[in-house]
Amino acid sequence: MPVRKKSAKPAKKAAKTKPRAHASTTQVSGRMGTFTVARGHVTIGVPAFWTFRQTNEDLQVESPTGDTSVIVTAYERNTDGSSLDARTYLDHFLANAPHQSRIQRNGASKSSAAARYRDPDGHNWIVQFMTNGSTLLLAELSTSKPLNGREAKLGMGVLESVALKRKR
Question: How many CA atoms, within 13 angstroms, populate the side-chain half-sphere of residue 139?
Fold first, then answer.
């Protein structure tokens, strides 16, 4: 039986590849499940393998290592009838928070205000207040990992996923 020669195949063209960029928080938040509280006015994203707990006062999402956590606490407006202002509560929170580094504030409005700082123990904190006028949410991220690491970015994705429905 004659032996067949393998035909020469043309060389494959090298695929043009782009260098991979770091995962953005929008890509990270796409891999989360969503939890909505019973009243239906607060939602939060929960990444796979992270621990989720709901207590009477707050929602807690914690990384598998325990080094990163996001805690969301809701407060209701007093009966005085005045609208809640996120900037006021952020100022009060930061005045009492122990911080070692310079506080970096993000854009603040009456409905949302946020800041980032490092405490004396070396933990990174991102706090965010949001309100719809009658309910105030305090969402805080605490991590001992660098903020540009994967676990901290997932935590920031959780923080960005927190949503408060407008009042009816």
Answer: 25
